[in-house]
Design goal:
Order of helices and strands: HHHHH
Shape: elongated
Number of strands: 0
Largest sheet: none
Strand content: under 5%
Mean pLDDT: 76
Distance between the termini: 24 Å
Number of helices: 5
Length: 84
């Protein structure tokens, strides 16, 4: 568990300690969290690809904006729900 102030310990130390304790704890399953983060990353990747492609999709920019309009927590929830 985290103790102390973040300005004293640093956010990096806090992250490494929390992830390390989650990995050591057999009751914590990290697969849903990784899937959620992967879904967020894929949404950004797809939006960038659609915005950069001017070829077969005439409305690529509009689709990219539509993907980016969906909040990240929704994409995270979609990815998380696959393995929960």
């Amino acid at each position: 568990m985290m103790t102390g102030d973040l300005t004293v310990r640093g956010i990096g130390d806090w992250f490494l300690e929390e992830v390390g304790s989650a990995i050591d704890n057999p009751d914590v399953d990290l697969v849903p969290h990784v899937a959620g983060l992967g879904a967020v990353a894929m949404s950004y990747g797809l939006a960038v690809t659609l915005a950069a492609t001017d070829g077969p999709l005439p409305f690529g920019d509009a689709l990219a904006l539509g993907i980016l309009a969906v909040p990240d927590v929704v994409w995270y929830g979609i990815g998380y729900s696959f393995f929960d």
